[in-house]
Amino acid sequence: MANAKTITVEQTGSPIRRPGDQRATLVGLGLNKLGRKSTLEDTPAVRGMIAKVGHLVRVVEA
Predict the structure, then answer these.
(1) Percentage of the chain with pLDDT > 70?
(2) CA 20 to 30 Å from 44, out of 4, 14, 30, 59?
(3) First to last CA, the chain
(4) Long-range contacts: 13-17, Cβ < 8 Å, 24+?
């Protein structure tokens, strides 16, 4: 897809003292340190991952 929509997320919270599945979700989103940003394809799967760790990330407006 040449014009695939993308979404940028920034990690704002620490995974310390969080369940392992939330840590794994952050890694799946390409995040592992506070302040890191990751640009991903805007798919339902990615939106679901963002919803799961919504308290640890924020969506950056382009």
Answers:
(1) 95
(2) 14
(3) 20
(4) 13/55, 13/56, 13/57, 14/56, 15/56
What strands, in cross-sheet order, belong to the sheet with 57-60?
A: 37-41, 6-11, 57-60
CA dihedral (31, 42, 61, 18) positive or negative: negative
Q: In this model, does residue 3 exceed pLDDT 80? A: no
The ranges assigned to domains in the chain are 6-60
Q: What are 38's strand-pairing partners?
A: 9
- The per-residue pLDDT for range 23-47, each reduced to its tens digit, is 999 999 999 999 999 999 999 999 9
- pTM greater than 0.85 (yes/no): yes
